Amino acid sequence: MAWTMLVAAGLLEILWSFLMKASQGFTRPVMTLATLVTMIASFGLLAGAMRSLPLGTAYAVWTGIGALGAFAVGILVLGEAATPLRLLAAAMIAGGIALMKAAG
User: Fold this and answer.
1) What is the DSSP letter of 10?
2) Who has greater pLDDT, 23 or 60?
3) Crossing angle for the helix pair 84-103 and 55-76, nearest 10 degrees?
4) What residue numbers bound the domain in which 97 lies?
5) How many domains does the chain contain in total?
6) CA–CA separation, 3 vs 61, rounded Å?
7) What is the DSSP secondary-structure string of 13-82?
8) How many Å is the Cα radius of gyration of the chain?
9) Residues 101/61, Cβ–Cβ less than 8 Å
């Protein structure tokens, strides 16, 4: 159950980072509120997962999911560049997440 909560928290991190971008520096009230709601839900699920997962593993996996997801949303939705070096960096983050899961 902890891993399910952690993955859900990571997915919500992707969502709140996208919503934060859409809030245009917290100048759009609806997007700002949506950012805060998803942020709180993400933190709540992370806290729940940390009841049984090690801190380092849970936090690294949570931030990794968020980083990779935000990277993908940036490319697929916002038209950001997918350069070879950026893709290599994303692959290294994914490898780190896999190692953390294997170790934990």
Assistant:
1) H
2) 23
3) 150
4) 2-103
5) 1
6) 10
7) HHHHHHHHHHTTTTTSHHHHHHHHHHHHHHHHHHHHHTTTS-HHHHHHHHHHHHHHHHHHHHHHTT----
8) 14
9) yes
| Size (the chain), residues | 104
Residue 81: phi, psi to the nearest 5?
-70, 140
Amino acid at 18: F
Question: b/e per residue, 65-92, with b = 16+ CB within 10 A?
Answer: bbbbbbbebbbeeeeeeeeeeeeeebee
Structure tokens at 55: 């801190």
C-beta of residue 13 within 8 angstroms of C-beta of residue 42: yes
Could you report the per-residue pLDDT of 30-78, keeping only the tens digit for each? 999 999 999 999 999 999 999 999 998 899 999 999 999 999 999 999 9
